[in-house]
Design brief:
The protein is an alpha/beta fold. The protein folds into two domains: about 5-25 and about 105-195, 3-Layer(aba) Sandwich (Rossmann fold), CATH 3.40.50; about 40-95. Helix content is about 55%, strand content about 10%. The protein has helices spanning about 15-25, 30-40, 45-55, 65-75, 75-100, 115, 135-145, 150-155, 160-170, 180-195, and strands at about 5, 25-30, 105-110, 125-130, 170-175. Helix 2 (about 30-40) packs across helix 5. The longest helix has 25 residues, at about 75-100.
């Protein structure tokens, strides 16, 4: 089965594209959703996170405090690497298990840090980048999440640059400020048909 790696910077529109593809029959595996489940109350990663970073990054509900963890990672880049060391093997294993059971016309792995991770390139047949200019990314994230400009810029600073993503892309979906939802859908449908061999 064809395996597509779908990626793009924060606010690029990856989720919207993934939703289109799922609606049309692709099996979509979102690594962010897996990560959230792993760090939710009772999640598989919680004991490992607490053991490594202490109770201060675990909220009252027993889930990982994402804001506290993000702040710690920004203060000390080694924290982010250690957290990734805990999460990435668990995410990869769960994504593989879901892929093994997939029954769509192809599989889409939604991986925000696909380019940065290094190991995803060998796990997919094609990389599709949802491309967006940085100003539009910032505006979208501010609108939807209420994060501060400083926080958004720090998140973007640890992501691959637009140029790095485009250099790694086999397919590109353009989703800039002037792109309407119907234009986005049209691009996604064109690739969907290609990937299904239509």
């Amino acid at each position: 089965m064809l395996k597509i790696g779908l990626t793009g910077g924060i606010g690029s529109g990856k989720t919207q594209v993934a939703n289109f593809l799922a609606k049309w029959g692709a099996s979509v595996i979102d690594t962010d959703e897996i990560a959230r489940a792993l760090t939710a109350t009772g999640g598989q990663a919680i004991p490992l996170v607490q053991e490594r970073f202490g109770a201060s990054v675990i909220g009252a509900s027993g889930a990982m405090d994402r804001a506290a963890m993000r702040e710690a990672a920004f203060r000390d880049p080694s924290v982010r690497l250690q957290l990734e060391g805990i999460l990435h093997p668990l995410i990869t294993a769960q994504a593989q298990a879901l892929s093994d059971k997939a029954d769509g016309c192809y599989v889409v792995f939604v991986v925000p840090l696909l380019i940065e991770s290094g190991h995803w390139r060998d796990r997919v047949d094609r990389i599709c980048v949802v491309d967006c200019d940085p100003d539009t990314q910032i505006a979208r994230v501010q609108t939807r999440s209420g994060l501060t400009l400083d926080t958004i810029e720090r998140i973007m600073s640890v992501q691959a640059s637009r140029q790095q993503r485009l250099a790694a892309a086999d397919d590109v979906i353009h989703n800039g400020a002037q792109t309407t939802i119907s234009m986005l859908e049209q691009q996604a449908r064109h690739l969907h048909r290609q990937w299904c061999g239509q």
